């Protein structure tokens, strides 16, 4: 086990090195537009995310935050403009989509764990089937990440037997097992009871400190202040304002940002 | 003044439940005699059960004839006033025919091997703890059908036995087992096809399903055995049993497809997204994530279709094939055993055999449902 931890850490070290040598842009979105039928959800989105950058996205309900980050791993298809992830442009080419999904982890509001598989099986499934990793190795890596999210003792339980906070931590570990270079979070704490939010945020802060490239849709402003390099405010399908956290919270420029912040901060 | 503030000082211990809610007496008191109305219902129920089962037990066990050479044993002497019950001696004498049909007597060992191998492979497959499931499944699904095919039909030095000599339980089981094992995968493919994003595949699946669901099985059987030869070129001739097998399989596959589709619809979108976000391909996502959950949800519906198919095998009589029921009915014409209770006994026997198979499937499915249940439902 100890040996394996070392291995996994080496893996991490290697990846950090790679970050420096690779191109520095992780995600490049240019003039991206999306429609649901006639409804224009995303309008001319331009966003460049650098490697190791932590971005928090906020905005009123229905503003298109989820849709935008779901376009990054092709859970939703965009109709105009371009998205380049890790140097690969997203097109209808299934191979490229697969390649991108292997490098981009995603954590959902409702965890989306597989209820018919144990926690360990949830974590080893993709490494075994997608990365073609031997089962034993996959299990060792899974146990490593489960320890990191502080629930190795739950490995043989089923998701339905865990609390919400524990399930979300498993979901994060499950993504990490694929060794992604970018992590997307779509309101990871908004389905959780207050006492469980902290345990999930702690894991995310840990990830950020290690230099993971992260895009988080969240309304946890404490988290945004603590880890974000940049906060993006979306409204009606557009990026209305972006800034570094201090400036964004203390001195919002756009009136809609001011209105939004006054609403969520006074609750 | 009442005190609003309260702080618990000590922990309450865990106590066993009160005695009168457990045990046989407790159960009877709670469930059968909890009130006057309930007591009356219980008594009526006991009375009804008695009036149904008493004659049945009398007919099938108490007054039954177990031994005998011919009809004489099962006919009461003219003015003795005796009631003769079930004539089991007749079933005993005919049992080989019920099991093998007109399969040549010297070759019946082949059928026995086929039955035996089936049990040998199916039982370890059905018990969860037994190891080597993968090998077992390969043997059962690939090796076994080939072996069984050659054993039953002949070839490789074995005497050829035409399928029109097959009959009884053999025909029932061949049709039912083939139909069941072929219709499930076909039904799954059709269900996936019907939910596919590719319009052609979707259209083909919908047309297939709606066509086969829209015609009665009897029509299918008639068409396959009477009409199909008209469309085939001269000299091309399928075996009749094969045609029936195909007809029954396609027919139940259409029902299966709708059952499976029901299960697929119950799987939340998040499961698909979770799988896709991890980079699983379509077939991996379906095979590892979606279908295991969807099929588990619709086990009752799947088994329902299996049971329906099993009982529908009796319809092949209409195209001149003798399944178990047909074989039993055809034995009624034999004067050696004609007695007032011959037909009753025959039908009772048929009912018992069919019921045991169907009840077995039903219990097994309940067992699997419990076994596959993981954690709390939310
Ligand atoms: N599949 C869909 N079909 C049609 N409209 C959709 C679909 N999904 C989302 N929408 C619409 O697109 C808009 C943006 O949705 P999105 O889920 O991206 O919002 P959001 O910013 O994530 O909101 P929330 O904070 O409530 O999660 C909403 O108005 C929503 O009604
Ligand atoms: Mg959302």
UniProtKB/TrEMBL annotation, chain B:
A Pfam family per the record: BPD_transp_1
Keyword Transmembrane: yes
Membrane topology, record value: Multi-pass membrane protein
PROSITE patterns: ABC_TM1
Domain ABC transmembrane type-1, chain residue ranges per copy: 169-358
Transmembrane segments: 32-53, 113-130, 137-160, 166-190, 211-232, 244-264, 285-307, 347-368
Entry GO terms, CC: ATP-binding cassette (ABC) transporter complex
InterPro entries: AA_ABC_transptr_permease_3TM, ArtM/GltK/GlnP/TcyL/YhdX-like, MetI-like, MetI-like_sf
Locations listed in the record: Cell inner membrane; Cell membrane
Keywords: Cell membrane, Membrane, Transmembrane, Transmembrane helix, Transport
GO biological process: amino acid transport
CDD domains: TM_PBP2 (cd06261)
Main subcellular location: membrane
Top-level taxon: Bacteria
GO molecular function: transmembrane transporter activity
Family note: Belongs to the binding-protein-dependent transport system permease family. HisMQ subfamily.
Name of the protein in question: Amino acid ABC transporter permease
Organismal lineage: Bacteria, Pseudomonadati, Pseudomonadota, Alphaproteobacteria, Hyphomicrobiales
